[in-house]
Amino acid sequence: MNVHDEVGAPEDNPYGPYLTLDRRHWAALAASRPANLGEATLERLRGIGDPTDAAEVREVYAPLTDLLSLYMERTGALFSASHEFLGLSGQRTPFVIGVAGSVAVGKSTTSRLLKELISRFPWHPRVDLVTTDGFLYPNARLERDGLLERKGFPESYDRRRLVQFVMDVKSGAPQVTAPVYSHLVYDIVPDEVITVSQPDVLIVEGLNVLQPARRRTDGTTGLALSDFFDFSVYVDAAHTDIRNWYVSRFLRLRETAFQDPGSYFVRYGRLSEAEATQVALDIWGRINGPNLELNIRPTRARATAILRKGPDHQVSWVRIRKV
Predict the structure, then answer these.
(1) Which of 80, 110, 223, 323 has an alpha carbon within 20 to 30 A of 216's alpha carbon?
(2) Rounded to whole angstroms, how far apart are CA atoms 189 and 178?
(3) Is the CB of residue 195 less than 8 Å from the CB of residue 168?
(4) β-strand 315-321 against 18-22: which pairing, if any?
(5) In Å, how far from its chain's centre is CA 96?
(6) CA distances from 234 to 16, 107, 169, 239 (A)
(7) Exposure of 70 by Cβ count < 10 A (0-12 exposed, 13-18 middle, 19+ buried)?
(8) Are 310 and 241 in contact (CB under 8 A)?
(9) DSSP code string of 157-225
(10) Which domains occur in the chain, in start order?
(11) How many whole angstroms separate alpha carbon 235 and alpha carbon 307?
(12) What pLDDT digit, counting tens, does each position of 45-92 carry?
């Protein structure tokens, strides 16, 4: 692993694709439009153990949503101009944002914050948020195919169905449905779907949303999910920090969700703190850590924006693609 992945932002390459800004310089880019959400709203949006506060919203997410507003405006103008040139009619299709990153890095909080802030734009866009969990294969199939211990790896998802879902939304289909995943039972919920109906903005959050297209046996490649993104965010941190956050979250869940008799993980609720810590470290070492290094982190350079967090879970620098 590059040492810069652990200690801070690398030096900018004037010919490289990214511009890196420390938090102070990034915060200074925010427009005067207020981004105050209030503590009650933040409490609703934060993930377990995530300390995101009003300062983080003001200094990190306000500039990011200002940049997104510019992307939306310019993308809309290009859509209109190209359709006029081609003699086409029809309403503008949704602006699609992908949010990627490891388990426990805070990408769900980032996605929910973006949804909340974008929905407060002056033109009040309708924003839908869909996670890729719903496109995991059911446990029965994963077990049949020997993939239950690789849940979250790219091969554990119905990627064809996921790409089709986003393509249909992006194409302006009146209604598109997605399966529902339950973290309580750790499986797809049979016969339950969520429906997306022509939103102005769609946020797609998941571990592997920036994966490149797979190569077919004949050497050709198909479409990748990210082919339909107008903007993408990778939430990043040092491997050790993410592992520590995962263990802390596991211990919190041991005291809360794992106590539910209906939880798939109810057996972990009976463990001592030391036992639960060891189980969490084992799961990380066998599944989440390898998935991060083999599949998730290698897609980081495909993102439009990279939010790099320090050990305190606060964003310390931001990298924006400039070419």
Answers:
(1) 323
(2) 11
(3) no
(4) antiparallel
(5) 12
(6) 18, 8, 22, 14
(7) exposed
(8) yes
(9) B-HHHHHHHHHHHHTT-S-EEEEEEETTTTEEEEEEEEEE---SEEEEE-TTTTPPPPBPTTS-B---G
(10) 4-321 (3.40.50.300)
(11) 5
(12) 887 778 888 889 999 999 999 999 999 999 999 999 998 999 988 778
Phi, psi (rounded to 5 degrees) for 201: -135, 135
Task: Name the residue among 89, 24, 73, 84 with its Cα closest to residue 231.
Answer: 73
Give one word for 87, left, alpha or beta, with left for phi > 0 and alpha for psi -120 to 50.
left
| Look-up of token digits 């993939």 | 147
Per-residue pLDDT at 93: 87
3-state secondary structure of 99: strand
Query: Residue 1: helix, strand or coil by DSSP?
Result: coil
Name the token pair of 291: 């998935």
pTM: 0.93
**In this structure, are residues 142 and 178 in contact, taking their beta carbons and an 8 Å threshold?**
no
Q: Which amino acid is at 230?
A: D
Below-50 pLDDT ranges, the chain? 1-4, 6-7
User: How are beta strands 231-236 and 95-101 bridged, if at all?
Assistant: parallel
H helices of 87-158, in order, are 107-119, 139-144
The angle subtended at Cα 63 by Cα 6 and Cα 67, nearest 5°, is: 105
Q: Which residue has the tokens 């040139």?
A: 85
Structure tokens at 10: 């690398």
Query: Measured between alpha carbons, how far is 99 from 304 in angstroms, rounded to an integer?
Result: 10
DSSP 33-68: S-----HHHHHHH--TT----HHHIIIIIHHHHHHH
